[in-house]
Amino acid sequence: MSSAVTTQVTELQNYINGAWRHPSSTEFFDVTNPATTEILARTPMSSSADVDAAVQAAADAFPAWRRTPPGERVQYLFKLKNLLEEHLDELSRLITLENGKTFAEAKAELRRGIENVEVACGIPMMMQGYNLEDVTPGVDEMQIRQPLGVVAAIVPFNFPAMISYWFLPYAIACGNTFVLKPSERVPLSMIRAFELLEKTGLPKGVVNLVNGGRDVVNALCDHPQVRAISFVGSTPVAKHVYARSAASGKRMQCQGGAKNHVIVLPDADMELATQIISDSAFGCAGQRCLAVSVAVTIGDAQESFRDSIARSASTLRVGDGLEPGVQMGPVISSESKRRIESLISAGVGEGAKAILDGRNTRIPNHESGSFLTPTVLDGLPPTSQLANTEIFGPVLSLVHANSMDEALDFLRRSPYGNQASLFTTNGAAARRFRYEAPAGNIGINIGVAAPMAYFPFSGWKESFFGILHGQGRDAVEFYTESKIVVERWSRQETRKF
Ligand code: NAD
Question: How far, in Å, is the centroid of ligand 1 from the Cα of 257?
């Protein structure tokens, strides 16, 4: 296929065994630009037969790929990095078209994806094992890491390009072969990225892409030749994938949903806190799994933070993410907009006051787009249902607490543990927070505590199911099997040399 992405409505294909192929299914899902509702392409809802073809291609490619020296394997990633850099603007534009986030946000997303390709280029060092001579006289012991075989990743809509790179580069650099299932809502940027992968000359079958939804996911979970699955998406689906894949003995890492808290102490630099928390809550229209969703103010911070966040959020320019100067794009779909609007109404019903209300937003010339303006719900009761419900939209709830103890208790009651942040100028408060906060990614005066590629993305509680996280050293452990060799050679043999 020359280019899967054109200005006409294209029926997308799968990439299997080094070629673009029509799926066996005749069912399609419309990919819609959320700023305009224009249909950009149609995603095939592939079947288990398509999954089987991709897994078979990956299984056939595995023996030769695992024997390719790691130093040679990463040469393809160096080429990929250069191609991604060369096509940065083109790919970012696609991300904006299919997802709605602004062009600047799309570029930043891709940059974080490329960072993972760069880190995976260090596999010849990172994949090394360790050894010890003379564990008993004349006996040596070593640990070596070997690839698993065929591995798969299933990813969500909110970072159409970046999240696939939390997995793909590490998986193949470690010697595995790979099957990706993008979100059916935003397949375009990964299809283009696979066209670039093709240009690296990667042997056929090493990477494969199967478009689709639930049937593809379930077929991957059940497939006996898939050894491991990385999943990112909502908590109910993460749990489903974790349990279903366990039934066939797979290794799993499943990242789920989130409800992230920031605690604002009265001694915080309020101007800095406001700017950073506003970026975190409303950037990418709140559709980031590390977006701050609840700000817990303590003492005098209640009034000062409430006033400054409302002022700052009200100035954000909302519109089509491709237009210069736009700071916040639409949410992913009209259903999502309606769901967010009804959650805002639920919060108001539970006693919060909408001091900024983004419901019923209409953007001139984009009347059909899925836009909301930033919403701030003041005084959300900590015991309300909304306080523990993931909204995944541009809504910041304000909860008041009398002390750090009370705030930390509130955080402990949250089912999620993706991220928690603190704004303060007090080192002791910061240390206490780092020590006690019940989440896996912690920010101190940081709004989006997104781990760099060389650190694991460490969600906790209902935000993560598994042990080894994506990215960094965890990725190498996840994508390799540990083998221990205990070795003795007779002394007589040794003396001959
Ligand atoms: P989603 O759970 O609806 O979809 C994720 C993937 O699962 C998609 O590829 C989709 O096709 C598939 N899927 C959907 N429903 C399924 C079902 N019933 N059975 C089998 N497969 C199914 O998530 P989404 O709406 O695409 O993404 C938003 C969610 O992802 C939010 O909850 C967000 O917090 C979460 N997320 C988490 C992280 C993290 O690092 N923890 C990162 C990004 C997004």
Answer: 8
371 plus 229 within the same structural domain: no
Catalytic residue set: 289
288 and 300 assigned to the same domain: yes
DSSP string of 183-241, one letter each residue: -TTS-HHHHHHHHHHHHTTPPTTSEEE---SHHHHHHHHH-TTEEEEEEES-HHHHHHH
Q: Give the residue, out of 183, 293, 343, 474, with the most ligand 1 atoms within 8 A of its beta carbon, to mutate for a pocket test.
A: 183
Range of the domain at 280: 260-444
Mean pLDDT of 49-72: 98
What is the spatial distance between Cα 218 and Cα 214, in angstroms, rounded to a whole number?
6
How do residues 155-198 score in pLDDT, each as one tens digit? 999 999 999 999 999 999 999 999 999 999 999 999 999 999 99
In this structure, the answer to whether residues 474 and 439 fall within a common structural domain is no
Distance 438 CA to ligand 1 centre (A): 23
Q: What is the pLDDT of residue 497?
A: 67
Same-domain pairing of 140 and 20: yes
For 281-293, what is the mean pLDDT? 98
pLDDT band for position 4 (50/70/90)? very low
Span from the CA of 231 to the centroid of ligand 1 (angstroms): 8
- Give this prediction's pTM: 0.97
Name the nearest CA neighbour of 216 among 45, 54, 57, 55: 45
User: What number does the ligand 1 atom closest to the CA of 184 have?
Assistant: 11
Q: 451-486, pLDDT tens digit by residue?
A: 999 999 999 999 999 999 999 999 999 999 999 999
Listed residue (180, 275, 188) closest to 230, CA to CA = 180
CATH of the domain at 172: 3.40.605.10
> Around 362, how many Cα atoms within 13 Å sit in the side-chain half-sphere?
4
- CA–CA–CA angle 439, 445, 446 (5° rounding): 65
Q: Is the CB of 237 under 6 A from ligand 1?
A: yes
Closest ligand 1 atom number to CA of residue 463? 41
Confidence (pLDDT) at 25:
87
State the total domains in the chain: 2
pLDDT digit string, tens, across residues 366-392: 999 999 999 999 999 999 999 999 999
The answer to whether residues 233 and 268 belong to one domain is: no
The finding on whether 32 has its CB within 6 A of some atom of ligand 1 is: no
Compute the mean pLDDT over every residue in the chain, rounded to the nearest whole number.
96
Rounded distance from Cα 12 to ligand 1 centre (Å): 21
Q: How confident is the model at residue 8 (pLDDT cuts 50, 70, 90)?
A: low
Q: Is the minimum distance from the CB of 336 to ligand 1 under 6 angstroms?
A: no
User: Does 451 fall in a domain?
Assistant: no
Q: How far is CA 73 from CA 76, 151, 226, in A?
A: 6, 16, 21
